[in-house]
## 1
Amino acid sequence: MDAMKLVMCAVSAVALDLCILVMIISAYREKKAGTKSWQHTTGNMELASQDMIFPLGCDEVLIGRHASADIRLPDLSVSRYHAMLTVSEGVWTITDIGSKSGVYVNGCLVMQSILRENDVISLGNKKLIFRRRRDQVVR
């Protein structure tokens, strides 16, 4: 009888291990699919300055001088809360949110503008290039 309990316990442990393995594989596949979906939605874009690269990792990105900004540009020519980047169905838009010096896209002052790859965004004295991310390829 003890041998039977031992066998049943071993079978239960193996079944539990298999369930955990299936859950881990499913979570990995879901994460990979979610990453591909997010990168498709965002176009896998980033903002690049001369010395920094800012990956665009969410659907709303606040740019400004304030410490709470998602992309912080510590320059007095940049307003505390200068601009907002948003993405919807793969289309990125930049909106001036009341800055003092304005938002320029390719040299033109805008209140709101759809962004295209390699657009140059000027916020105060700072210039950022909107480009496709170069550091990773998702398969």
## 2
Amino acid sequence: MPKIVQCELCPNGCVLDNGQHSRCRARMNKDGILYSLVYGKPCAVNIDPIEKKPFSHFLPGTTAFSIATAGCVLSCKFCQNWQISQARPEDTDTYDLPPDEVVRKAIFYECRSISYTYTEPTVFYEYMYDTSVIAKKYGVKNTMHSCGYINEKPLRKLSKYMNAANIDLKGFTEDFYNRICNGSLKPVLNSLIVLKHENVWLEITNLVIPTLNDDMKIIKEMCRWISKNLGSDVPLHFSRFIPHYKLNNLPPTPVETLTEARKTAMEVGLRFVYIGNIRHEGESTYCPKCKKMLIERIGYFIKQNNIVNGKCKFCSTSIAGVWS
């Protein structure tokens, strides 16, 4: 009898015959045992500003030791890192970097955190989890930038060691997720609720793509859902789309669209709304009460920071986030 296994990590639920690879290309059934093909073998290793993830309310001005392996649980037509996210592990150049060595290097380079990023960290779940456990022992924070397409049980287990997560909420309709990402919206919304429930610091990124997810009525619905289910203090990043991968036929997102999206989100009641991938006043953090600039950003560079002990320096309003 063939030894069939089912992967229970993400909603794809791949059922694999012996020798078969998962949809994410990072897992394989070997004689009835499911193996990770990317454990300890990142294809991307960098030291980044935490602002690049992007995080605006988590240890601003610090650096993150960033790693990724090949593979992804989705197949978004606009992927910025498709060369590695849509690649097989054997087709990428990799480093030999076990979990303890990741933590050692993070400490050596004085990075306050390790970031699991670039592709989809769910595909290297075991590697990420083991690294996170060691990092926590040494006082190094753990962050991830994820599409949130992960089952609840492994996410809750990981959340015990994850300090912050930026989740890509790519759109707000099942049609968008099905046609453009080959996935589903519902599991992502559930992941956002789980992370909030587990007290992981949460930020959200929405890449605004002309003609595909830039309908202001739907953006308004999304912002209302965030406010109702996650709270008004969750930072939301509207990111500018640049033609890429399979969507080279579309134009870059107009600045006016991003500005309108930010205005819409703030009218709904979200207190911290950002604009990324372009120079804009929406890069900076403002006090929701006195409206003064708290953190001035130019790209990933912080020009000034007026948050003191988690509060606005000018009016003492508490600002949600992880500041120290």
